[in-house]
Structure formats: C-alpha cells, structure tokens
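Researcher: Let's run the pair from yesterday's discussion. Sequence first, then tokens, for each.
Model: Starting with the first of the pair.
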Amino acid sequence: MNLAEINTADTANEQTHEHAVAEIPLQAASEDIWDKKYRLKDKNGDAVDHSIEDTYKRVARALADVEEEDKRDYWHERFTWALRHGAIPAGRITSNAGAKAHKPATSTINCTVSGQVPDSMDGILSMVHEAGLTLKAGCGIGYEFSTLRPKGAYVSGAGAYTSGPLSFMDIFDKMCFTVSSAGGRRGAQMGTFDISHPDVMDFIRAKREDGRLRQFNLSCLITKDFMEAVKNDGDWDLIFPANASEMEQEDIRIIWRQWPATSDNYITDDEGRTACRVYKTIRARRLWDVIMASTYDYAEPGFILIDEVNSMNNNWFCENVRATNPCGEQPLPPYGACLLGSINLTKFVSKPFTEEAAFDWPQFREVVAVFTRMLDNVVEINGLPLGKQRDEILAKRRHGMGFLGLGSTLTMLRTAYGSPESLEFTEQISYEMARTGFRTGVELAQEKGAAPILDADIEVSAEMMGKRPQMAADGIRVGDKIKGRILWARYSRYLQQFASTGDGDDAALLKDLEETGCRFTHHSSIAPTGTISLSLANNASNGIEPSFAHHYSRNVIREGKSSKEKVNVFSFELLAYRELINSQAIPLSQAEDEKLPDYFISADEVTPKQHVDIQAAAQKWVDSSISKTANVPTDFDYEDFKDIYLYAYEKGLKGCTTFRFNPEAFQGVLVKESDLENTIYRFKLADGTMLEVKGNEEIEYDGEMHTAANLYDALKEGYYGKF
C-alpha cells in the first residue's frame, strides 16, 4: 500500500475504526509490566488501580485538575477518551500522576540534564548530590563529563595530578546503582564526552571492563569538523583549556577554540574563544575506527551530532546543549527537563492485514490535539526536586510527544518497514503530529499564555548574530532587545520548515507562532518506549522501531533477584494477525516458526541504511530528537557495519545508535530464542570442572533459577562478585 492509498482513510469514522484491534487481550507479559511498573499500589502493596481503566482515570483526573475548576470534569472526560484511543503518557506520568498520597516525593518528568559539572572536587560532589536527588525522584539524568580536565593534569590546589573524568564517572555510577537498588527501579544516566577531549579513547573503551559504568549509556559529542577530518583522512587535535602557567611554556602548543564550558580559570580572547592546550594530535580515522569497533562489540558509545543538535534547536538564542537524557531523544541545556508521551499508532488502523487497511488521519489529529493539552498540564505537577530544574521547565514548558508502534502499524497496513512507502508514511505521521501540536500550542497560548521565554525581551548578542546572519539583513543589531517569540519562530531553522511546505495553513501557523507565541518551545521527540509499549500497548513495536522479533525473550529486572528474569513475549501484530486473520492450531509458544506474510518485518531484516532512512524521514518534523537503534545480526560483516554513522551524518541526523547481539560482551534487554540456543556459555565449578550449557537452558544457583545467559551476565557484571 502506498501513501496515497493510506491517505484515503481520511474519510474513516468511528464505525470503521471499530474494525481495528482494540479488543486483542493483553498478553501475560504486558499485564505483568503494568502491574509491576504503572499500577498504583498503597504502602502495603495492595492495588489502588484495579484495572488499566482505573490507571487511565487516575492520570486523566490528575491532569484535568490543573484546569479551571468549572472545566475539570469536561477535560477529565476528554483526557480519558484520548488515553483509551492511543495516547500513552510516559512512564513517570503514568506511574506518578495522581499518586501523591502514596508517593509524595516522585516526579512526573522522565528527562533531565545536570548542570555543568565543574572542574573542581567541590563542584563534582555537588553535582553528585543533585543527581542523587534527581534519580531518587524517578527522573533519568544526563551529564557532560568532558568539562573535567584530563587524566594526569596537574591540580595546583591539591598539589597532585588528577585521575581524570572516567574516575569521577565511576562515582556517579555507584551512586546511581545505590539509589536504584534502594528504590527497586533501575536508575538511568547518559554520559556525553567531547570528541576532542584528551581522554576520549578511555571514554570509548570504558565498558570493555566488566561491570564498569553499567548505570550509564555513553555517547560521543561529534562535530562537523571531526566528521570532515574523518572523510578527508585529516589530523585531529585532542585539547583542553590551558592554565596560566601552560600559556608561558614554549614546548606546549596552544590553539584558540570556542569551548562549551565556562570557568574563571579559562583564558579567553575578545571573540569569546578559549586558549586550549593541544595534548596530542592523531589521525581522525584512527579515533573513528576505535569508536566503530567498540560500537560493533559493545553497542556503545552512541553518536550525537552536537552541531546539528544546536543548529536545529528552537531555543538556539538562549541555550547551548551539551548533553541529552539517558536515551538520547531529548537534548537539553543545563538543568533542562522534559516530559514525554507517545501515541500508539496501531489504534488508528482499520481493517488491518486486508486490501482495505487504512489509517484514520482525522482521529489521529484529534488525539494529538487533546494529548498536547494533557502533556502541557504535566508541567504544573512536575515534582522536580531541584529549584533550577523547576525554573527551567516552567520558563520553556518543553515536552516531547512521539509515537510508538510504527513497525506494527506498517505491518498491519501491509507495508514493509524500510520500503519507500514506509518512509513516506513515517514523514507524514511526524508532520501531522507537529502541525497539529503547534496549532494547539498557539490556542493554548491564547487561552493560558505563552511559555515565559517567548514573552521575554532578549538582548541580542554578537554570538547570536554569528549564528543567524539573516538577523543583520533584517536590520537587527547587537544590543537590540527582541521578543523571544520572534527569535524563536522567525529564526528557528526547524520552525521555518513550515514556510516551505506550500500549504497556506502552515504559513498562517508560522505567522501565529511569531505574533502570539506558543505554550511550549518544543513539542515532539520519539522515545524508545520499551515498557509502555510492552504493557499498555500490548507489545506494539517500540517507538520508531520495527518489532525486534515476533516471538522473543525480554530480560526483566526483578527486585531482590540477582540476575534478570527471562520473559516470553509476542509482537502485537502477530497476536492481531492470529486473532483477526489466521488463528492456527500451532501453539503460540512455537510462533517463532510460524509462516507469516512477507510484510511481517523484524529488526534484523532491516538494513542499517534503512534504519537511518526511517529516522531521517521522521527527524525532519521532530523538533527534539529520536531514540533509534539500528539492530544488526551477530554475524553482520564489520566492513558493512562501520560506515553506519558516516551515513547518519550525511543524512543530517542528530544522533545514531546500533545494537549487535554479542554474547561474549553482555546480554541485551531483548533476545531471540534462536540466538540463545546457538550460544554456549561455560561455567567453572568449585571442583574445577567446566559446565557447558546453551544460553536458554535453566540453571539453579544460589537458591534462584536463571537462564544460563542471564546467570553468566550477572556473574560477569559483579552481582555475585567477580569471576
């Protein structure tokens, strides 16, 4: 089915929509995740939410109570309707909204970024303290660690040499593990690191050590200059700001660069550049090869094109982004915070798997509009633990609406994930979500007021003029005071895309954004949606991804258990296909062997370039970023693999990550039965003999049952002590 055929569903109504798949019973794994993560319980563990409908009503009531008193019942009804029809707030909202009587110290915000980590002991430990409070509230957090001086640099105050950024990251790692162990929910952190820092090689290789930095996702901050050096086989300087004594030494090379961090100890010139010491010069391709080899073996580090992030940031005039939330879909400034929510696309497919399969665009737009108001209301009940975090979210009111179930939905529309038709559909979904969201944002600004930063008078700086030369052509000068909404709408490279669609409504929207402002500065991002997809969406495919497989295992953390628990799950589209089209006698447990139509695509059938192409199709209309993983088989050729990130750069993405199942390195969250069965794990017993077992075989150890793969992983990572 092509996009033109899909668009004919504009005439769909509620009656035809009933032919969709809302009544597919939840699989056991989905109910279990809802019960463990999102169902509200009292201090005794007794259920307050007796059903998922109760969860919907609790969340809807908490968000509707933000409205004026005489409108609360109306919006409670509308919000409940949206939740039933595909709107799924992110985990912290679903878990904590309306739960204050039982969980008073938790937040409804998923994403935060730390303040700049200062290059001093007091500063680092103050950030550890703030991060601990943030994680305790249930929020994920990101940090940039390349603000810390490299290993071996002299610290004059201590009269000693520093152990470097990685050693301080270990402190954050242990703190996160301690906080998450006490709370029963794994903490989530992102560590970013500049590609020009002298310790970047250590950062890239950090996870090769068993058990190190396991509470972190890691990503390199990549610049256009570095990528061009890779393409041209040029040299690359590894640098860090110089101190006064280094400036006087003749044998030290100094260069002047724009440096993202600020410090009273840095030496700057009239153009705002910082004096940096060159610690080493290497071939850019050598560094690139180390990144790609590590990514091939360990799925990290990820790749953040920080130039593109800042160039396309709606808040370009008041932010410098250097870190993201733990999964990368929210690039945020210091103390930035963002709430999330996703729309389950499978809810809008009528007559799935048939020639008449169609997508209900009018109802999709209606859910987007109602959900936008819901997410905006979350700002008022954010529950963030730090004053600077609360100030930041109230000033900009950014949120990230995305979608989940793209892969499942394409399958239900008989469209292969990665095909040209799927790219058109993906771009259309993102565009409709963005246009509807910003139109709703204008209406909310008229009703409730714009985000404060957009009503503020902003003094124009030389740096701002350098970023947007068009301002000079428009007669703006340094020192002028301009309304935030004008800098935001007129000079945002993202928002100006609405001027190029040729749609008169889009042109009118852009004018309204400039004249009225918007309730929020950012509207969309696409999160990985792991457990909300599995639970409330009955294992529709995660976020923008295809389904990992149609029958596979999920490794779940259980409180009090030393290894992860293996849980069997089935893709939503497989359940729907069996329910609606082809209910076979074959047991569901054997579904991995089931013959399915060719348009049933799983992740390892999608080429890396197709993964990137899908992400690029969505990114055009996503104003934050996208958490996307290019899954490749274990035996995928390294020579074909290593150019994925280069292709992502050429497509203008903000970031990219990959995953290749490598049993020698670690266990992933999602694992196919065939991979486990084909992997042999070896354990040395107390008497010195070796035990060889397949990864999916059950083993009893320390009074618990484990799969061999998960036990091996737990032993290697130190949950039972080191080997």
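Model: Moving on to the second of the pair.
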Amino acid sequence: MSAQPRVPKPTSSWSLLRRFWGFAHPHRRWIWFGLTMIPLVAGLSTLRPLLLKEAIDTAIPQSDPLGLRVLGLIFMVAVVAEFLCSAVQVYALQRGGSSTISDVRRTVFSHVLRLPARFYDNNAIGGLLSRTTSDVEALSETLAFGVFTILTDVVMIVSIVVAMFVLDAKLTLVTLTVTPVLYVLVRYFGAALRRLQLEMRKAQAAQTGFLAEQLSGVTVVQLFGREPAALREYERLGQRNLDATKHANILDALLFAVMDGISAFTIALMIYFAAPSVTSGGAITLGLLFAFVDYLQRVFGPIKEFSGKLATIQRASASLERIYGLLDEPGEPAGTKAAGEAVIDPLHGWRGGIRIRDLKFRYKDDGPEVLRGISFDVAPGEVIAVVGRTGSGKSSLGRVLTSFYDGYRGSIALATPTGEVELSSVVPEQLRRHVLMVQQDVFLFDENVAFNVSLGDPAIAGDRSRIERALAVVQADQVIAERGGLEFMVGERGANLSSGEAQLLAFARVAAREPTLLILDEATASVDSLTEQKVQRAIETLLHGRSVIVIAHRLSTIRRADRIVVLRQGEIAEIGPHDELMAKGGVYAEMVAMGLEEDGAGVNAGATSVEAAGP
C-alpha cells in the first residue's frame, strides 16, 4: 500500500478560510441567509445619522414640531428594524456555524481513527486531543465573533464612507488621509499576532500532551515520587504558553490604543477643516458635522474592535493550520463502492491459506530491517507457532499480517478460491473482517460487558445470545455472571476486572466474530495459572477449523502447533514440529531449556509484548 500524497499546506489566513468553506458549504443556506441581513443592518445603521442631520439642519431651525416627531418616529422604526435584522443575522450565522463546527469535529475524529500506527508512533495523544478540542473550539469562536462580524463591519464601513461622500466629498477625503496608516498597522500587527497564536497553540498542545501522559501513568509518578519533577515540567510548558500569551496581549493592547488615538485624531482633523465653513454659514452645516462625527465613531468602533477580531481570526488560522496538518496526514486506505452497489470482498471464500516469500520489513525508511527474508506457508486450518527472543521480529510479523504497518517488501499471498491475493492490495478494513489479533495488552472501554464484546457492531450488539455464546466459548460466562452479567460496567481500561478476566473478554471478542485467521500475540503472558486453564480451553476451541499464528505463546500451546517457526534477528533459524526441533537440539531446544516452561512460569527468556526493534 503506497502512502497517499500529502496535500500542500496553505500559508495565508484567507486561503485557509477558503479551504474551510468546504465544511460550511452543506450549511450554506443558513449562512447566506445571515449574510443577506448584513446590507440591511448596515443600511439602517447608516440611516440614523442622516435623520439626526435632517433634524438639526431643517426641523429645529424651522421650529417644525411635526417634522421633528415624524423624524423621531422614523428614527425609532429604523432602530427596531436594525435590531430585528441583527438578531436574525446572528441566529442564522450561528445556526450555520454550529452545524459546520459539528461537521469539522466529526471529520477530524473519523480521520484520526483511520490514521496508521506509524503516525501514532511519532505523535503524542495529548497533542491530538488539543487539535480535536481546543483547535476546533477556536474555529467556533471565529465563526461566531470573527469572520462574519468582520464582514458586517466591512459592509458597514463601506456604506458609511459612501454616505459621507454623498454628503461632502472634500470632508470625507480629509478623514481618509489616515487610511495608509491604518493599513500598515493592521498588516504588521496581523502578521505578528498570527505567529504568536500559532506558538500558543503549539504550547497548549505540548502542555496537554504532558498532562495526559502524566495522568495515564499517575501510579508510576506517585510510586517513584516524581510529583515535584512533574509539576516543574508542567510549569515550564505552561510558561511557554504564558510568554506567548503575554506578547499577544501586549500587541492587542497596543493596537487598540493606537486605533483609539487615530480615531480621536481623525475627528479633531475633521473639525479643524470644517470649522471655517460652519462658522461662516458655508456648505458644511452643524447637522452635517454632527453626522460626520457620528459616522466616524461608527467607523472607528469596529476598527478598534478589529484588533480583538483579528486575534480571533489569527487563532483560527493557527488552529486551521494544525487541523489541516492532521487531515492531510494519509490515513489507511478505505474500500470504495458506487451508490447502490455491494462492497466486493476480495477474500470471499478464503480459508486461511498464506504463502509468505522473502518478507522484509522495517519501521522507518532509514531504520534497520526487523524482518529479513522470511519465507514460510500457512495451510488452511494449520496452527503455526512463532517463537524467538526479544527483537527477533515476532510481533512485527503479526503487525504486518494485520496491516497495522504497510511498506513491506517481498510477498504475502492469501490463497482464495479465485487465486492468490497480495496482502498489500487488500484494504485494512476488509482484511480485518477475516484476520483478528489477541494481544497481551488488552484495552477495555468504560462500558458494559456487552459493549466490550460487540464493540458496537450492530450485528453482534443486537444479538445477545451471540454475545453469551462467545463468553461461554472462552469460559468467561460464569465469571461475568458472578460480576453482574452483560450489563456489568468494566470501568476505564477494565479497572473493575483482573488481567485474566480482561483477557477472557478479549478472546470473547474474537469468538463472537469467528475470524478466518487468528493471531495470538503473547495473549496469555500476563494471565495467572488458574485463568490460563480457562484460556487454554478457549484457545483449543478457537483453534478448531481456522488458521492460527501463535506468537511467543506458552509451551503448552506451542507443543500443539502443527509447526513452529523459530526467528532469530529477523530471520528464520528453524522450522518444524516440536518433537523434531527438540531432537535437533538447536535454537528452539535451547530456548525451551532456558525459558519455555511447561507450567507457564515464563515465556521465552526476557520476552515482552513489544519488539525491541519496533518503534
């Protein structure tokens, strides 16, 4: 499976926001409806100073109470209409924005679930939590208080400037002399704020990642007295975020103060140039001057708030950059089908036959090979045991066969009735309907027993008898009944169960799905002897009629394997039945003598569930 090409990351805020429109497009009706209210709100807001001008320049000098009352009623109607249009605008935009953010959350979560194991090898879970929570929340703030309100402000400013030109072009040009200064300030502060916002997001992700890691290993932290050291490191990471935040606040405060000063200067400049005309009865009247002052306050109000909205947009740009960096990571290939067509299963009728030839694999392009030229066959229904010392490639073989890692060289051919199918041509989703693995480290969800067996699969969750049969097969029915039955809550990571009981549930998951190929990766290494007896009986049931690869299992199961593949430093050292390899007196016989005990006292000497050569 070749890696999907990475999409180039956009760099500008507007290019990021344009790409974001893809999420907003399905909800465009609400958004467009809200946007159509913007000209109405701007027009009604522009109308009020004109009414005041008319009252000052015409109705008051003429002592016309009726005219003043009419203007007052029109003014009141304009205010009510503006507020109603503004309320409709906010509701429509927030309705469309909330739906858009919901789609973003769903898309990010769906994509994260499809990312390959290599991605998780190099990215902390805490950082991913930051991207999927706080970064998405920053987008929500932008839709509510950033982009749309800035659009409203822009339309408002344009309508006010047009009205000012209509009233007096010369005086308007005077007030616009500060525009170049405003442009330079916005460009400079905008670029600086974006850099700081990106730094704040990275710092928050690092701190969140550290917090998640320390909480996950809190027992180790407490056991070895690392609380003070952990607190110091958390404070150090928090200081990085605090420093960036302080710098951003300084820039924000400076921009607001400068805008406030420019606003006052512009009004003073306008009054200075208008004074001669007002006092001499020229074209500039008192009402016109009052209207211009009102207009300038309405213009500089949004401009002064623009710094905060700009900071919000910069936060969103930094968040979008991180979110799209995540979405641009190539995920595992997914099966596709046309509308109304059934998904074609390339492994339909496969009975578990595998032909492995010259298999080579490394976790990183520049890393060492952990599998070097492995070749062997698995016949349908055959049980193969794979043993070897730590770092020999046992677990790596299991990870390749389940497509958790791609990029292998050589051939892994699956013998189907219609011919051989190369493993790399089968998408993981389809492969894992036929191939399942039981690992030593069992993960249980904070749900009841029924969910942890079915994992939400409708075909299994809707058939309680199927779940009960699976529990009975693995000898876990009595244990679960004593605990409270299928509704018993197992707790976070199976906290309410022993390691042996958790392992039995892992076997029940497999029994409920009946895979064609089952891989046991040190599945009983941490199980007590009493539970192991139940597990061994469960394994014997699961082995019947299907192909099985047993990785570094205990001797009691290995001896029942049809053949044993002995790995040493990523290569096959020996292969054959137990008795034959023992008679040969080679690597396998030495391993049995050193670590593979009949009573299950140990696995192979020093073995762990994670390959030393792995990531």
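Researcher: Give me one sentence on the second I can quote.
Model: The longest strand covers residues 354-361.
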